[in-house]
Amino acid sequence: MNKEEKLKKLETYLSKIDNYTHTIKILNYDLETACPEKGMDDDSDGIVTLQEMIFHITKSEEYISLVKDIHDSDFESLDPYEKTLIHTLYKSIRQEENIDEKTINEANELFSKAYMQWLKAKKEGDYKQFSPVLKSIYETQSKLLKLRYDYLEDDPYTTLFDDYEEGFTSQDLDNFFDDLEREIVPLYKKIRESKYTPRHDFLTRKVVVSKQEAFTDFLIKHNGFDFTRGSVSTTEHPFTEQFSFNDVRVTTKYMENNFISNMYSIIHEGGHALFGQNIPQEVFSKGLGEGVLSMGKHESVSRFYENIIGRSKAYIDSIYPEFLTLFKEELGDITADDFYQGVNYVDINNPLRTEADELTYSLHIIIRYRLERMIMSGKADFDTLNSEWNRLYKELLGIEVKNDKEGILQDVHWTGGFGYFPTYALGNALNCIYVKKLDKEINLEKTVREGRMDLILDWMKKNVFEKAPVMNTKEWIKEISGEEFSAKPYIEYLKAKFSALYHLD
Predict the structure, then answer these.
(1) Strand intervals (E) in 399-473
(2) Which of 221, 301, 363, 390 is a Cys-bridge partner for 401, taking CB atoms 3.0 to 4.6 Å apart?
(3) pTM score, two decimals?
């Protein structure tokens, strides 16, 4: 077979895998949005069955031989999307060549059922219910890692994190988080001791869900979301799922006494959706799928919209007329300046990552990262891990965690394994690098204040989205900005913004 014939044959396999994956995503989406409690086991069983079918395809001799043949014989003549596809498939084959069907089925079943067990434990605020599950997740993930060709016995976290950010090591992460802690913690302490407090009393006023839903539609449309290719639903823990090029689902959570929780959930998740709706169509037509976009890249975009834009004075000014129209009864006495101050208020007693302000957010991530490092090194005591969580919150944030629901059970992420959390902080740092170029070229503040979010989306398509599928994150940020990855621009941004907000100068 020539190259074109091989690629055509490979496409038949990938088409089947894509169909199974699409159905798995629908079942997962249902599981986390609309599925009744007693129906969750059925969704879970369906997911495991489809994962078995994918496993059989990727373990077939013909599929493996085909991918290896293209990789070894035709790689240099492939276009950039085809190279990314074959690199990804070949790497996956190598990683899974020692994993048998029984092992992967047991792992898939564990991860699928863990969500339901976490949901129950969180509802009842009882970590003891979930600790055996968490230990099993560690043991299973560790077992899978040890079967991989690229397993690093003295540094398993690097092996793990490579699945999220190829090219980043645990040493990169240690350096990055050490830099953040060294600079952010002293700034946070100054704020805790500051005599000035931004106005924020209105943040807990009751706002009925129907008005929040109207605000959701306004915000996500204002930022550029295409409702003909996406939708919005509700869930316990907001997320975004991309089923296909023309189907991106956003979820949020409404709380009557915390309207900005939904506001920033929808701006954040809407950022993920904007990335998904505007990546090159070749990602799908060439068989890659949106999974080729690393989470660090994805988080850089979602947190760019949520924080760099969404918490800026220019953005608050631009959406204030609609805010006042919708919430005049509840918040009519709040000025645009009050609103800006409130959405940037640093709540020194908040233990929740999802409700964290922009300054302390990465401190929440540092805690999770350090616990993950402890877990993956085999040093964690799962029976008392909630106590270690609470200790770190006291040490870094000065917060006394009241219960497990607000502590170690607050996040869903560990039901699917470890390694995801650092990408949030990487995303914060990445967008602070490329926003400098954006600002220079289109004047970010002026563009946002004028409500020209279309100009921002156009810039993002050309500079941020276009090459994201075919480069690793370090290459990608250098291509966009001409700079190497660093925490420095992020730290400078936080210092400037919060020193001004809290009158520290």
Answers:
(1) none
(2) 390
(3) 0.90
